[in-house]
Amino acid sequence: MIFYLENKVEAENKEEAGSSAEAYKRYWTDTLEVLHSKNGVKFFCGVTPPKGAKQWIGWTPVNGMGITIRCVANQDLARVEFYIGSSDKDHNKKIYDYLYSKKEEIEKQLEKALIWYRGNDNKASKICVENRDLGIVNENDWDKMTKYHAQWSKKFYDVFVPYVNKYME
């Protein structure tokens, strides 16, 4: 009887090869390069490709507010979220309500109707834009999806962050 031992790294690499985890890692690696080059080095700084089949990456553009701009790559859609998720539910709802009071202005600036999710029973709230014509399963979509994530994360930063800064004054 012969036994073979493999180290943990070899086992993980074998498990990831050809899996959705490997696809996500390749997608996020390429996308982060584009986010940095198109939107500026500070954009998504410190964010690295996630391990496993993680469907989103996030960046915190406003310190101490619990706000994250997230890029989401699902099987059947690409989404960008302005995620308001500090540990304080009331704080999150106040920020969301303030932004919602500016909904018309915000959507006019973005030239797009957004998905507004207050999440009354949840701690977090989010505001999203999504494209259901793109998805991680089709590698031919990846360039378009990367451009979508870069374009909308930048737009969300440029439009939402000044409103949050004004709210904090």
Descriptive labels:
single chain; 169 residues; alpha+beta; five-stranded antiparallel sheet; 5 strands; 46% helix; 17% strand
Topology:
Blueprint: H1 8-16, H2 20-39, E1 56-59, E2 67-73, E3 78-84, H3 89-101, H4 103-110, E4 115-117, E5 125-131, H5 142-168
Multimer state: single chain
Span of the ends, CA to CA? 72 Å
Kindly estimate the percentage of residues that lie in beta strands according to DSSP. 15-25%
Structural class: alpha+beta
* Mean model confidence by pLDDT: 88
- The rough form would be described as globular
Count every beta strand, where a strand is a DSSP E run of 2 or more residues: 5
Determine the number of helices (DSSP H or I, runs of at least 4 residues): 5
Helix content percent band: 40-55%
Stretches with pLDDT under 50, minimum 5 residues: none
Description of the structure:
With 169 residues, this protein is α+β, with helices and mostly antiparallel strands. It has helices at residues 8-16, 20-39, 89-101, 103-110, 142-168; strands at residues 56-59, 67-73, 78-84, 115-117, 125-131. Strand 1 and strand 2 form a beta hairpin. Helix 2 crosses helix 5 (142-168). It is globular. The termini are far apart. The mean pLDDT is 88.
Quick summary of this structure?
The protein has helices at residues 8-16, 20-39, 89-101, 103-110, 142-168, and strands at residues 56-59, 67-73, 78-84, 115-117, 125-131. By secondary structure, it is an alpha+beta fold. The protein has a five-stranded antiparallel sheet, covered by helices on one side.
